[in-house]
């Protein structure tokens, strides 16, 4: 294990930063620090994501549809809504895995509440 973690985040439009921060904090409690928050490029305009990243002192990284779609076969909890809207069966899980170009494993199940979904992936170093 490398100890390097990536946090994938999906959210509904207009979700407040506080909801994102709560779920990220719950999902990463007791874990090593993360290298950043990762999400799909469509979320660039989400103020809640930007504010959450600033509050958590983490970079916010936007990934392409192709990068997330490349993780499709590794998704533990597929979403038909994400597939229909973004062309990938997941935003949070796929973004966490794509942060390390697929050289990662999901840590536990994704968490979802208050319009936010969070998944954590750990880098695999061979």
From TrEMBL:
This is Cobalamin biosynthesis protein CobE. Pfam families: CbiG_C (PF01890). GO terms for biological process: cobalamin biosynthetic process. Residues 5-121 form the CobE/GbiG C-terminal domain. It comes from Pleomorphomonas diazotrophica. InterPro entries: CbiG_hydrolase, CobE/GbiG_C, CobE/GbiG_C_sf.
């Amino acid at each position: 294990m490398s100890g390097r973690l990536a946090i994938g985040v999906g959210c509904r439009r207009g979700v407040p930063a506080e909801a994102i921060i709560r779920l990220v904090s719950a999902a990463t409690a007791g874990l090593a620090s993360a290298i950043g928050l990762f999400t799909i490029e469509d979320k660039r305009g989400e103020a809640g994501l930007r504010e959450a990243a600033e509050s958590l002192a983490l970079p916010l990284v936007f990934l392409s549809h192709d990068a997330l779609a490349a993780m499709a076969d590794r998704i533990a909890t597929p979403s038909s809504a994400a597939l229909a809207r973004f062309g990938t069966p997941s935003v949070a899980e796929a973004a966490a895995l794509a942060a390390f170009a697929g050289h990662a494993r999901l840590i536990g199940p994704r968490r979802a509440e208050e319009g936010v979904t969070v998944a954590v992936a750990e880098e695999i170093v061979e």
